[in-house]
Amino acid sequence: MALYYGKHKVKDYEAWRPMFDADQELRQNAGANVASVMRSANDPNEVHFIFDIADMDAFAAVMQAPEFGENMQKAGVLEQPVMYKLEELAR
Q1: Strand ranges inside 2-88, DSSP E
Q2: CA distance linking residue 86 with residue 83, whole number of Å
Q3: Domain residue spans in the chain?
Q4: What pLDDT digit, counting tens, does each position of 18-65 carry?
Q5: Nearest-CA neighbor of 6 among 46, 64, 62, 66?
Q6: Which of 68, 69, 62, 60 is nearest to 2 (CA)?
Q7: pLDDT value for 9
């Protein structure tokens, strides 16, 4: 498993969050578990998240599926997520 950080802006966090939560099974089927979901203290519609992803290729395939794009659009996601692989340095 590897940790990935991502972020994107949404139209309305309160409307986005229930739709994000409803997609949990889709993410899990792609081997991604949500480690954390946060939002910016300066912009409540800027969402930050950390995923623990077993297979990034499988997860990327799900993210590129038409259903995923439609769900993001319905949820009010305003831009493609930016994703970075994280490397743990110390605890």
Answers
A1: 2-9, 32-39, 46-53, 82-85
A2: 10
A3: 2-85
A4: 999 988 888 888 888 899 999 999 999 999 999 998 888 888 888 888
A5: 46
A6: 60
A7: 97
Considering the four listed CATH numbers 3.30.70.100, 3.30.70.20, 1.20.120.1200, 3.30.530.20, the one that applies to the domain covering 2-85 is: 3.30.70.100
CB 3 within 8 A of CB 51: yes
CA distance 40 to 74: 22
- Give the three-state DSSP class for 38: strand
Residue with the two structure tokens 């300066």: 42
Determine phi and psi for 35, rounding to 5 degrees. Answer: -90, -35
Q: What is the pTM (predicted TM-score) of this model?
A: 0.82
CA 19 – CA 16 distance, rounded (Å): 5
Largest CA distance in the chain: 39
User: Looking at the DSSP assignment, which residues form a beta bridge with residue 39?
Assistant: 47
pLDDT at 57: 85
